[in-house]
Amino acid sequence: MRVLKKISSLILATVMSITLILLTTASALSAESMSDAGSVQSNNYNVLVLNFDPVFSMAGNKNQHELMSWWNDPHWLADEFRSDMSEISYGYANYTMVDWIDIEEMPRSTDGKSYTLEYYYETLMTANKETGGAYWSYSGWDEYGLTFDYEHYLNEYNVFDRVNKGEIDEVWIFTGPMVGVTLYETRMVGKDTYWCNSPELESDCKPFVVYGFNYERGVGEMLEDAGHRAESIMKHVMGSPDYTKDYTDYTDWEKFTAYDSVAPGKSGVGNVHFAPNSTKDYEWGNTKYVYSNCEDWLNYPDINTAPEQVNCETWGNGDIREHHKWWFSRFPHIAGINSKTGFYNNWWIYFTLDYINNPTASSDTMVYGDVNNDGVFNVSDVFELLRWLLNYSTKPENWKAADLCKDEKLDVLDLCMMKYKLINK
Question: Which residues of 223-256 are buried (b: 16+ CB within 10 A; e: fewer)?
């Protein structure tokens, strides 16, 4: 038996000596077999846009978004927002506007009332003149209810049925300012829904999110809507933050959203309103330096770098869009299940509601190469496989993660591919 083990070890040692030769073969195979190993898949989400942008004949047939020179074209806003979301999610959340409906009316409230075009235009012009451009502060605006009539429009455009059929994943609604009704920044609609920066709207369909955008505002504010959506969903999944407890008891969500005012010296990335050094809401331009591990969140779940001093120069010097892109870009986004928490390492799975609506795709989260099942692939996994191949340990529990050849067995070629993957990581 000892002789056989020695022979086996000699054979494997000889095989290891020609690893460099086999690496050439492994690299060729890897182009097809593992080009996406350990990375996050790219998903597409279909969007229905409902654009309230009626034509005003009394203003020379201008669309509503053209009534004030500083208001934005909703088409431009949608394209920019879509581009930003793809960028900050590392390609996970890609949006396609499969249907764009221009609605030639002012939006109605739940009591069925809405402004006429004539009233809106006359009041807007008067308000703009009398307030020096601060038309929102004008006291002469009539109020028609408080809430946009979601159910009316979602039924009118057959949204519930289209969501169930998989034709639509989200709804983006654009309106102008001061239109007599209030849209929530985000609202979750469907079965078993929950608070998403506004009260849920129960309906017999798969859960989906409706955005309420205002073309008076910019892309930064659209990203803020998305940020509050993320906060609501992650609070539902991991619990509301409690920064008063000992830091060692923080959840990953608490560590991520911690900022210096609530966790001195232990700031993470902060939240949508509070950067790591903010002392009040929206203070993204604070020049004060604080210690934070915000940059280490790019390596999640491998968070072990000592905090560094940062200030607003790190996240855009107060620019709302730059801050929110920076914040989202540190959102955990690699594949795999966190072995310590049981949650996905890729939090975009929660943001997009894939964890509810697309569990098959969500379950494809294996980190290839992660033999020891700690949620990351590194040199310790290579040694774990090597030990097994040399008969020094039992077969790895997460052996399928080492099967980079995808042939349902482990051998030296898998080891070579693991080395190649590690070198090119």
Answer: bbbbbbbbbbbbbebbeebeeeeeeeebbbbbbb
